[in-house]
Write a structure and sequence with these properties.
CATH class of the largest domain: Mainly Beta
Largest sheet: 6 strands, mixed
Shape: elongated
Distance between the termini: 58 Å
CATH topology of the largest domain: Neuraminidase
Number of strands: 39
Structural class: alpha+beta
Protein name: Protein kinase domain-containing protein
Helix content: 10-25%
Pfam families: Pkinase
Transmembrane segments: 414-438
Region (Disordered): 372-405
Radius of gyration: 31 Å
Domain Protein kinase: 493-793
Number of helices: 13
Strand content: 25-35%
Length: 802
């Protein structure tokens, strides 16, 4: 597909083909055609304008070729040989615009690729011979001065470019000579090698200074400056010699299969990518022409993979993606630009009120269910676009060629090419089909929802859409008065204080009523102006949408110009810090028994799972910035089970936005603040803040769990970091480490049980060491850490039970 940025037209290359029932992958009959679609009539009532069918290479006529020619198999060869188009873009012209088509032959022959110019008015054409051996892709840069080609002829893949004449001159001469920009080695796996190069009309960044390449074979996206002798930059994806899973994540963890079409948003920081396997992927970039910040799967349809992708500007606030499928269906996806990543400076502090992908009120074709099969064109009596039209009869050029046989039951299968233009922009199609952001589309329902919601504002999409949920609704959040909070804490009396001088204020214990369970009230430092009160509510609204069993739930808030507060459930088991270092200090509780080795491993895994959600299931990822044992709350369950949750997540950004304050324990881009003993040395030394900062702090917590020592302490007037102290002992058996006093003496009985317990300790120590590597590139991501802990715990259970 190609689109006209100045006019409401979409240009389509449609392929119809059929195969014998006994050889479904063998194309016996093919037909290509070129269509012009008016987007103003996207309700299915306009059958589009046929510009031309494909033409035999022997046909040199300049007039539109309206006869649907289907090559026939004669004496083992298809005849006639047709002009097979591998790419399409739009060129300005006077008095008419042209589609520029990258042309090979079908069936393939040893011949140079051509460029064909097809008039968007009457379908007339001209051609230009090139020096490209075997074209894979063609595209014109944004200012329409150069055309780029990917050449797959042996021995290597090459990126080429040629000049395009400005109107009113003909854009292409009778022969177009391309110059080589880059060469990519074939046939060897590795980060420096690129195989099949795919790009399209909108694979350039807005100013044309960067071209994004899709490598279908090695499952990667690359970026390159379209100039001679420039090296490509690895954007996202991982090399694999076998089938791999599709995983969302950051640059180091994300993977996808066989990427193809790439479009770049006008800001240059977002890519939308389709894959041959049927996925629509959203990639945010650290910088234009830089590597991926995050990769997220937005949609998939495994039965009808996506084929064709273009972007069109809807208005000043929204973009539209047109997404084609191999079933001949086109979906129109509307994108709220307010939710796209735009790079530094930071996005506005008040969240916009819509989701990035919305669905329009009108849907075509209508969906009967939420299954993948519902993506087929509707059989209702509403009008639809049918390509090719049913009326023309195939024209046989060769006298010996037979017409296309009629369909016979059980002998041949035909794909009906139906193109209803689906305005898919407000409900969500479930995870088994297309996964899209959800936005309420009926005003009365929206108003009703708003009236019943305790927080103002609309739903804000924070979660990645996986097989568990679409848009996660907010928790039921209550607004509490300052007077009520004062009453239940006796005026925030010191006796009710359970957390003093934390990064975000003091924490108090209280009961909102005689029958309600106790709560923890975090009283924030700083006063709220009128504008900041609105900001406070907006940030609370955002926090309320972070849901995970290993994250503490936000119950309510207090918004008052004198004081503001966040209300959480009270955890009678105290914090992990208390359970390790001060077991008698939990309010209203007797001294707790020491945590067992199994409990400590379980707590570590639960912390990792909570962080995995923040890092991998939220866009953009949430960096906690202050992971430590005092920010892990525990609740004792039956049979010695422990439930652990992470607290204070999202509060670093919350405080920065609402209070404009530099908080001691908030790691900011301008100061190396943080909790001593847990701070990432890469940030302290290089001001580099990534999710790996949380991984480092998580490793310190594992050391705390195993040693029973604090993250940092003073000895002989010097501060001793726990990480340095543990690593000083090297790799010794767990029994030796316990003898030397490295491990918590409370674990002596556990370690003495046998080799399974020793193995668990050793594996956890290795993980802690990996997480606390000084070079953050050498640290695992938190998802990998969680899986390693799962394996360690499962192995112990397999051998000798819990």
């Amino acid at each position: 597909m190609a689109s006209d940025s100045n006019e409401p037209f979409l240009y389509l290359l449609l392929e119809s083909k059929c195969s014998p029932a006994d050889a479904p992958g063998e194309d016996r009959h093919r037909l290509l055609s070129y269509w012009k679609l008016d987007l103003r009539t996207s309700n299915g009532t306009d059958n589009g304008e046929l510009l031309s069918h494909w033409w035999p290479v022997s046909n040199t006529s300049a007039t539109s070729f309206k006869d649907p020619v289907i090559p026939q198999l004669v004496n083992g060869k298809f005849s006639p040989v047709m002009a097979d188009v591998v790419a399409m873009d739009l060129l300005p012209g006077s008095p008419t615009k042209h589609l520029v088509l990258g042309e090979n032959t079908w069936p393939p022959q040893l011949s140079r690729s051509k460029l064909a110019l097809l008039s968007t008015v009457d379908g007339s054409r001209s051609s230009s011979l090139t020096n490209v051996g075997l074209a894979f892709s063609f595209a014109v840069n944004p200012n329409k001065t150069k055309i780029f080609a990917a050449d797959a002829s042996p021995p290597n893949y090459r990126l080429l470019s040629a000049s395009v004449a400005a109107p009113p001159s003909p854009p292409l001469a009778n022969e177009t000579l391309f110059e080589q920009l880059a060469v990519f080695q074939k046939g060897a796996f590795g980060s420096a090698n690129i195989s099949q190069i795919w790009f399209g009309p909108q694979s350039f960044d807005p100013n044309g200074s960067c071209l994004y390449l899709a490598d279908r074979e090695y499952n990667k996206i690359w970026a390159i400056e379209p100039l001679p002798n420039k090296a490509p930059v690895h954007v996202a994806g991982r090399v694999s010699t076998s089938t791999q899973a599709v995983n969302d994540g950051d640059f180091t963890t994300a993977s996808f299969l066989a990427p193809r079409e790439i479009v770049v948003t006008p800001d240059g920081y977002n890519l939308f990518v389709t894959s041959v396997e049927g996925f629509l992927i959203w990639i945010t970039l650290e910088s234009p022409c830089g590597r991926a910040q995050f990769v997220q799967t937005l949609a998939f349809d495994l039965e009808r993979p996506f084929s064709g992708l273009v972007m069109h500007s809807a208005n000043s606030t929204h973009l539209r993606l047109y997404l084609g499928t191999t079933a001949g269906t086109i979906f129109e996806l509307e994108i709220n630009q307010a939710f796209l990543y735009t790079g530094p400076p930071a996005p506005p502090s008040v969240p916009p009120s819509s989701a990035p992908l919305e669905e329009n009120v009108s849907i075509w074709p209508p969906f009967d269910s939420l299954s993948p099969s519902s993506l087929s064109p509707s059989s209702s009596q509403e009008s639809r676009l049918s390509f090719p039209p049913p009326s023309p009869t195939p024209t046989a050029i060769d006298s010996s060629a037979a017409p296309l046989p009629k369909r016979e039951s059980g002998s041949r299968q035909y794909m009906a090419i139906l193109i209803p233009l689906a305005a898919v922009v407000i409900a969500a199609v479930s995870a088994v089909g297309l996964l899209f952001f959800c936005h309420r589309h009926r005003r009365d329902e929206a108003n009703k929802e708003k009236a019943s919601s305790p927080l103002p504002g609309k739903e804000i999409p924070l979660g990645r859409f996986d097989d568990s949920a679409l848009l996660l609704p907010a928790n039921p959040i209550e607004s509490f008065s300052l007077e009520l909070l004062k009453l239940c804490t006796r005026g925030f009396h010191e006796e009710h204080m359970i957390g003093k001088g934390g990064a975000f204020g003091h924490v108090y214990w209280g009961k909102l009523s005689d029958t309600s369970p106790p709560v923890a009230i975090k009283v924030m430092e700083g006063r709220l102006t009128e504008s900041k009160q609105k900001q406070f509510v907006a940030e609370v609204n955002t926090l309320s949408r972070l849901h995970h069993q290993n994250l503490v739930n936000l119950l309510g808030y207090c918004e008052d110009e004198r004081r503001s507060a966040l209300v959480y459930p009270f955890f009678p088991g105290g914090s992990l810090f208390q359970r390790l270092h001060a077991r008698s200090s939990v309010r209203g509780q007797p001294t707790f028994p020491p945590l067992t080795l199994t409990q400590r491993a379980s707590i570590a895994l639960q912390i990792a799972e909570g962080l995995r959600y923040l890092h991998s299931s939220v866009v953009p990822p949430v960096i906690h910035r202050d992971i430590k044992s005092s920010n892990v709350l525990v609740r004792d369950g039956e049979e010695g089970k422990i439930h652990a949750v992470v607290s204070d997540f999202g509060l670093a950004t919350f405080v920065e936005r609402v209070y404009d304050a530099s908080v001691e324990d908030v790691v900011r881009s301008t100061s190396a603040a943080g909790t001593k003993g847990y701070m990432d040395p890469m940030y302290v030394n290089n001001r580099k803040l990534t999710v790996k900062a949380d991984v480092y702090a998580f490793g310190v917590v594992i050391y705390e769990l195993l040693t029973g020592k604090r993250a940092i302490w003073e000895e002989n007037g010097q501060e001793i970091p726990l990480t340095d102290w543990v690593k000083h002992f090297g790799w010794l058996p767990a029994t030796h480490l316990h003898t030397k006093g490295v491990l918590d003496r409370c674990l002596g009985d556990d370690i003495g049980k046998g080799c399974d317990e020793e193995n668990m300790v050793c594996e956890m120590l290795r993980l802690a060491a990996d997480c606390t590597e000084e070079d953050d590139d050498r640290r695992p991501d938190i998802g990998t850490a969680a899986e390693r802990l799962k394996t360690t715990i499962a192995e112990k259970k397999r051998r000798n039970g819990p």
